[in-house]
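Appendix C reproduces, verbatim, an entry submitted by the partner laboratory led by Prof. M.T., so that reviewers can inspect both the input and the predicted structure.
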Amino acid sequence: MPDTPTMPHRTDRTGTTPSACRPARPLPPEAREALTDAVAATDLVRDAHLRMQEHADDRRRAVLRASRAGASYRRIACELGVSVGNVQQLMALARAKERTP
């Protein structure tokens, strides 16, 4: 049987590989490919989540700018299609983000 390489192992805080992560035998090519696809999908989800967070930050800053320019909470809410309470929450989050370095 040819020598099939195994997937790299993740380590815990001590630098050791948890026993649950150590394969008993080399993975077949189909399993390795599926695992590689799963890791790639996880990376895509993580990247999408980061982009969503950036979009949310942009939205909060825009709401704050609109308010400072004189737009009412109600006007902002109507433009965004959200409730006045949601606008207030967005503004509170934007102000909190401004205060943090």
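Residues 28-99 form one domain. Additional entries are available on request from the coordinating office.
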